[in-house]
Each structure stands twice: as structure tokens, then as C-alpha cells.
Inverse folding.
């Protein structure tokens, strides 16, 4: 009996060593949109995992988008703190404004990480100031929301301009973190640390969280294991455009697109043990936890 107990303790320790991240992932069939989501429990070594924060800027040309980032920033910072304490490497990726951080140790850390060749070439196309991975046909169909108007959902339409100057100050940048918006620098930082697993959070999912050179499409192509933190993201989607659902249902549709064609998703509960984040304007009881 004691032996059995010991064996049980030993095998359960093997299954989930202390400090291991237990992620409850959700993905979907790319072939059958009606199929039930596939739920799995996977275990990741925190020391081989990075959390990358995409474009959590201090301001945005769309007032609604800026307001939602402001609402999400505090809760995201609490998640980042927990993730950092658990040993994850944090990369702040405020695209096209990293010069704000020039000379800081976190920016220097990214610039000075030793060059590591990538297994496939990084995208050399440029969009919005960084390399870009465009939608990949035939791997993925068109986005499930029409964002051709750039997605301002304000009653009075906002004028597109470069409103951002830095990452939103509510997200702390710790001494051990790194700052980059560059695909090669991101690869170098991960390679230097033996990091093969990446969690993405931030905005906006239908644009930068998929397309930026540190983000989902590029990381998947580089062979990294990637998950999206689905409660800590947002989209640029205007409900006046197809498929004419609420902003938050539009975000859910894009999350479903990612789950079908790119990578599984998790909620921040897997990092914190607390309930997932939810926007206060989201009328539904449980957008991210279903
Ligand atoms: Zn707007």
C-alpha cells in the first residue's frame, strides 16, 4: 500500500513538477467550423516560456480602442507580475515606439542578444513600421469580421493618426524584462534563453497580434509553440460592418479564427488562478471562460 502511494506520488510529481505551468488550451477544427472546441491540458516549463505583450500603447487614434486598452492595462499588469514571478520571460513589444526606450537596460538587452539564425526567413514585408506577416492563404480564409474601415466603433468616427508614443505606463517594465518590436531581436532573445514556447497578449488581434514580426503568424512559422491569452486581447471591429455583431462578439469570432487556423488559446487564469479579465461593456456573463 505504501509502495502504491509512493508510486502515485512519484507519477503525479512527474506529471506536474513544482512550478510547471498547467495550461488549459482551446483549439478548433480548421475543416469543420461546427465542431466542438478541442480542450487540452498541457504543461509548460516556465523557464522555456515567454509572454509577449503586443502594442499596449499609451494612446490610440480610436478613442474606444484607447479606452479599452486603458481598462485592460491594470489587469494585464497583474497577470504580467504573476507570470514574471513564476519565471516567464516578459517581452514588451510596443510597435514603432521602442525608440522611447532607447538606452534603457531592457531595450539594450534586446539589441545585444547574440544573433541566432532563424529556421525560416523572417517576413521582409513592411507595414506600419515593422516587418509584417500578411494573412496566409490557403492556410486561413478571410477574417470573420470586416475591418476594412479599420474598425473604429465610436459613434463619432475617429481620424486615423499615430497617437501612440510609448507603452501604457500602467504596465510595469521590470529590470529583467526586454523591449523590442523587431522579429530578429525577438528570435535572438528567445534563442539565447532556450525559450520555445510563447504566450501572446495585447492588441489588436485581427491586425497586429497576428501580423507583427514577434506575433502569432511569425512565431508559428518559426516553429515555436504558441498560445494566445484570449481574455487579454481586443480587436478593431466596428459592429456596423459584417457580420454586424457586437464589438465583443466580433472579438470572439477572431479568437475562433485564431483557434482554427493558427494556435490554441488559454485564459489568464492559467497564469494567475484568478478569474479571466472581462471588459465592463461586454454584456455577456462569460466571454472568455466558456
Ligand atoms: Zn473610434
Amino acid at each position: 500500500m505504501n509502495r502504491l502511494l509512493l508510486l502515485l506520488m512519484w507519477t503525479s510529481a512527474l506529471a506536474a513538477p513544482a512550478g510547471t505551468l498547467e495550461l488549459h488550451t482551446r483549439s478548433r477544427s480548421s475543416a469543420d467550423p461546427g465542431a466542438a472546441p478541442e480542450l487540452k491540458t498541457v504543461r509548460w516549463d516556465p523557464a522555456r516560456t515567454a509572454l509577449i505583450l503586443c502594442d499596449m500603447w499609451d494612446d490610440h487614434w480610436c478613442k474606444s480602442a484607447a479606452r479599452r486598452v486603458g481598462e485592460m492595462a491594470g489587469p494585464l499588469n497583474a497577470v504580467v507580475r504573476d507570470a514574471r514571478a513564476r519565471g516567464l520571460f516578459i517581452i514588451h513589444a510596443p510597435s514603432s515606439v521602442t525608440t522611447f526606450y532607447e538606452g534603457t537596460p531592457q531595450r539594450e538587452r534586446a539589441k545585444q542578444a547574440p544573433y541566432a539564425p532563424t529556421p525560416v526567413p523572417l517576413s521582409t514585408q513592411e507595414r506600419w513600421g515593422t516587418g509584417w506577416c500578411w494573412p496566409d492563404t490557403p492556410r486561413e480564409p478571410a477574417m470573420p469580421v470586416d475591418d476594412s474601415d479599420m474598425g473604429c466603433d465610436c459613434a463619432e468616427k475617429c481620424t486615423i493618426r499615430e497617437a501612440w508614443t510609448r507603452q501604457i505606463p500602467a504596465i510595469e517594465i521590470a529590470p529583467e524584462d526586454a523591449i523590442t518590436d523587431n522579429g530578429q531581436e525577438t528570435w535572438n532573445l528567445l534563442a539565447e534563453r532556450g525559450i520555445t514556447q510563447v504566450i501572446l497578449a495585447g492588441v489588436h488581434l485581427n491586425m497586429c497580434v497576428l501580423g507583427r514580426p514577434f506575433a502569432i503568424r511569425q512565431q508559428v512559422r518559426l516553429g515555436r509553440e504558441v498560445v494566445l491569452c484570449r481574455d487579454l486581447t481586443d480587436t478593431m471591429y466596428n459592429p456596423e460592418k459584417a457580420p454586424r455583431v457586437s464589438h465583443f462578439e466580433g472579438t470572439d469570432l477572431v479568437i475562433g479564427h485564431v483557434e482554427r487556423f493558427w494556435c490554441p488559446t488559454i485564459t489568464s487564469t492559467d497564469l494567475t488562478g484568478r478569474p479571466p479579465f472581462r471588459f465592463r461593456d461586454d454584456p455577456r456573463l462569460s466571454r472568455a471562460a466558456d
